[in-house]
Inverse folding.
């Protein structure tokens, strides 16, 4: 992932800069998310990864699929990625773009994994606690992960807070070795 992030970062930064200049961060966010979802499709990824498919045909295919979801600037960006053999970076570019957008708007995207579903009250209390801990407003995405056994795992950018039983057991196992 870190190699992909390193390759994707200049593209994401340039797109974010352009989106800020034109005041269209929301539009770019939606377009990048759509293009990333197209690339994640197994049938499309097979075509993208096939070295026998020439760039012009690949570009035409992608533009045809994205028609109605992208404007001329998005199309030019897509063509640039095809030309540079970087279509596979679209999901990472989209994720980095969202991180830049969140930072600019003063919030942070937080992924929370719990062993059991949150009630509304617990989610609200936990949101307040995380906002105090991180010093920013948060947008929290909660997912249930039974493998944690109990507790929670929080990922906010590069920061990870592991309060899960699974994490504690792994930590204890390392300490005992």
């Amino acid at each position: 992932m870190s190699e992909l992030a390193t390759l994707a970062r200049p593209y994401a930064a340039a797109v974010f800069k352009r989106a800020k200049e034109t005041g269209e961060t929301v539009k770019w966010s939606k377009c990048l998310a759509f293009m990333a979802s197209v690339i994640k499709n197994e049938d499309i990824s097979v075509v993208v990864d096939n070295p026998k498919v020439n760039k012009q045909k690949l570009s035409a295919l992608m533009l045809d699929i994205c028609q109605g979801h992208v404007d001329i600037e998005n199309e030019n960006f897509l063509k640039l990625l095809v030309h540079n053999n970087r279509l596979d970076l679209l999901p990472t570019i989209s994720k980095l773009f969202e991180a830049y957008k969140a930072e600019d708007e003063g919030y942070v995207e937080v992924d929370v994994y719990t062993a059991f579903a949150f009630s509304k009250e617990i989610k609200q209390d936990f949101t307040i606690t995380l906002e105090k801990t991180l010093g920013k407003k948060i947008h929290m995405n909660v997912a249930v992960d039974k493998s944690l056994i109990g507790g929670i795992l929080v990922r906010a950018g590069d920061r990870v807070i592991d309060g899960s039983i699974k994490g504690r057991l792994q930590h204890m196992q390392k300490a005992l070795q």
